[in-house]
Structure formats: structure tokens, C-alpha cells
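Researcher: Sequence recovery benchmark, item below. Answer with residues only.
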């Protein structure tokens, strides 16, 4: 087990990054200033990924930060990413029901990947800012970018 994370923002942003990478979404940059830059969904759609799978991935990314660091709130960009993912998914269910279901998926994702998230959060807290390549190196995955 890794040491406890004192910086909730680093934990929040690290969760976004790990969720993105594990869903095949490229991370361009992350900082403890509350900024994560991701590759746009069009990149994945052009590669032939189904829009529903892409939408699900981006929804988990949007919700993973708050799921990992409960004292943090969803930023405007997190909320916007979630809204876009719900739209992209074109799910027939009520958007509020979908958000609750997606929140449950994000919470399970964070539980399953907690060690990776905490490892990245420690490095991010120390460095303050990381490129996508640095994030991939710490997490140990290659997203195809």
C-alpha cells in the first residue's frame, strides 16, 4: 500500500488520468492546479471505437476525480465532460439516472485502481505538473498516442 495522499487535488487529478488511460483516452497534460488535458473523443471515433464505449470512458474519467477524493468537487470542465459524454452516448434513459449509474461505475473503477491512482498522485504532488508521456510512464500503460 502506498503512503496516504495529503493533496486531495493531486488525488483527484490522478484519478482522471488513470481512468483516461485505462479507457484508452490519451492524456496530454496534468497539473495540481486542477487541469487535465485529454485527447478529444473524435480521435477514438475515427479509430472505429463505438460511440457508446467512448462516451462511457469519458463519463468515468469525468467522475473518477470526485470518486477518488471525496472532499473535492466536480469542476466546470468535469461537469462539461460528463454532459458531453451523456450526449455522445445517446442513452435513452433519463440523464440524471445515467449520471447516477455512471457515478457508480466511476466509484468501482477507483476502488479497482486505487493503488495506481495513489502512486500517480504522489508523483504529481511532487512534480506539480506532468506531460502525458510522464503520466503514462508512471502508470505503466501506453494509450496509443
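Model:
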Amino acid at each position: 500500500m502506498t503512503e496516504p495522499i495529503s493533496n486531495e487535488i493531486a488525488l483527484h487529478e490522478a484519478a482522471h488520468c488513470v481512468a483516461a488511460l485505462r479507457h484508452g483516452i490519451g492524456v496530454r497534460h496534468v497539473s495540481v492546479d486542477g487541469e487535465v488535458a485529454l485527447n478529444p473523443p473524435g480521435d477514438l471515433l475515427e479509430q472505429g471505437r463505438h460511440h457508446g464505449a467512448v462516451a462511457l470512458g469519458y463519463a468515468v474519467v469525468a467522475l473518477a476525480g470526485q470518486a477518488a477524493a471525496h472532499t473535492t468537487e466536480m469542476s466546470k470542465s468535469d461537469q462539461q465532460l460528463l454532459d458531453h459524454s451523456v450526449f455522445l452516448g445517446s442513452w435513452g434513459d433519463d440523464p440524471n439516472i445515467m449520471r447516477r449509474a455512471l457515478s457508480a461505475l466511476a466509484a468501482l473503477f477507483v476502488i479497482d485502481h486505487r493503488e495506481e491512482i495513489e502512486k500517480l498522485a504522489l508523483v504529481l504532488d511532487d512534480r506539480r505538473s506532468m506531460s502525458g508521456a510522464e503520466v503514462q510512464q508512471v502508470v505503466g500503460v501506453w494509450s496509443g498516442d
